[in-house]
Amino acid sequence: MLFRANFKELQVINSMNTDFARLQMVNQQVRGWNVYDEDVLSMLRELPRERFVPPGYEMLAFADTEIAIGHGQYMMTPTIEGRLLQSLGLKGDEHVLEIGTGSGFLTACLAMLSARVTSIDIFDDFIAKAGAQLDECGIDNVELLTMNAMHELPQGSFDTIAVTGSVQSFEPRFVEALNPGGKLFVVVGDAPAMQAKLVERTEGHDWQTVTLFETTLLPLQDAALPPQFSF
User: Fold this and answer.
1) CATH class of 64-215
2) In the chain, what is the straight-line distance between the N-terminal and C-terminal CA atoms, in Å?
3) Residue of 186, 185, 178 lying closest to 202 (CA atoms)
4) pTM of the full predicted structure?
5) Where are the alpha helices (H) located in 36-123, listed in sequence order?
6) For the segment 138-164, what is each residue's pLDDT rounded down to a tens digit?
7) Rounded CA gap, 48 and 30, in Å?
8) Which DSSP letter does residue 141 get?
9) Rounded to 5 degrees, what angle do the CA atoms 144, 146, 150 make?
């Protein structure tokens, strides 16, 4: 009985440590990088990011670093996730398209801030793992699809699109998948000088673009041009 009591105490301590680490991540890293949207900050304080990282990386979930998740892919850093979410200005009634499900953490964030999310990824195992974690967190307003965004997009149009990998040049197809007034977050360019952009679709096929910040992000699968390609 003494062992069981100590084990329960350890569980409580570990939970407290995790909650504190998540709080520090939000207050010191995310908020410190000009993320002030309280809806975004509150959601990040509550959502267990540590559940979406590979086993053994739970405490690294709160560091401002990319985490390898397989297939040469990485989770975004918490600061970039925060800036992405803030830039979209979600109000809770949007249908969001996420291009690049990855670990499923950003999928969960988008789902908590919007009405529903359609998320696509080229890797079947990412879709399966993300689905399992979303179920564990009780998030049920997400549709997950295996799809290569460089070849096709889901049918229909969306209020918001979040692209979680970079593209070398701007993809007008992404804007055309937006409803008028819809917003797109995308990182464009080549390392080390990529630009995070917020694109808003206006009437017809026009759009306006604002550059948010410079960063580096791995390209979407099939989005990078081969080394011998030249303009």
Assistant:
1) alpha beta
2) 72
3) 178
4) 0.89
5) 38-46, 78-88, 105-113
6) 999 999 999 999 999 999 999 999 999
7) 15
8) S
9) 115
Helix (H, G, I), strand (E, B) or coil at 231: coil
What's the pLDDT tens digit per position in 11-46?
A: 333 455 889 999 999 999 999 999 999 999 999 999
A 10 A CB-CB count for 88 gives 24
Closest by CA position to 187, among listed 174, 177, 178 = 174
Pairing assessment for the beta strands 116-121 and 178-188 based on DSSP bridges? unpaired
Cα–Cα distance between 196 and 166 in angstroms, integer?
9
Is 177:205 a contact under the CB 8 Å cutoff? no
Distance CA 26, CA 21 (A): 9
Residue 194: C-alpha distances to residues 52, 77, 167, 188 (Å): 26, 15, 9, 6
Angstrom distance (rounded) from CA 73 to CA 62: 18
